[in-house]
Amino acid sequence: MEIGSTRPLSLALLAALLIACGCGREEPGARAVERDKPLPDQVITDFRLTETASGKKEWNMSARRAYIYDSRGLIETEGMEVGFYDEEGEIKSTLVADRGVINRGTDDMEARGHVTVTSNSGVTLHTETLNWISKTRRIVSDDSVRVVRGGDVLTGVGFRGEPDLGSFEILRDMKATIRAQDEEQPGGTVD
User: Please, are residues 68 and 47 in contact by the beta-carbon 8 Å criterion?
Assistant: First the structure.
């Protein structure tokens, strides 16, 4: 009798523990990943950061929120926008992305999620990840890219170029759709 009466109690206790700890409602390992991620030293809303070299502005970044990790030397951002400057101090292109990471030791930057770079000359780059390499002052990606210039569209995998998109290369699988010069903008008519 005692064995039969404790078994339902043990199952009920186990079920209560599973519900209390949230087990069964999470993906396997989700709680372990949360525990292992270090907490930021600072969280800043309406974050702004300017990178200079020899007294000249290289880029200026704003983000909805930034997470500062002092021991890791990283800044993680949400909702980032970066303006890249030319030698005269004018913005030459603008990058927007869902998230970003800045390495404070190297000043390299990675943009992630719906990354778009738009130059003042009207060239636009779309990709999912893009890196700013501070040492070479270039932007690079190993992901699929789409570059739009007027009505011309270039697609491929891998990108290396200048932040103003004046000079760049697509590394492989490049395809191009070239619009004839006498065509009007999309939605227009051809004479």
Answer: no
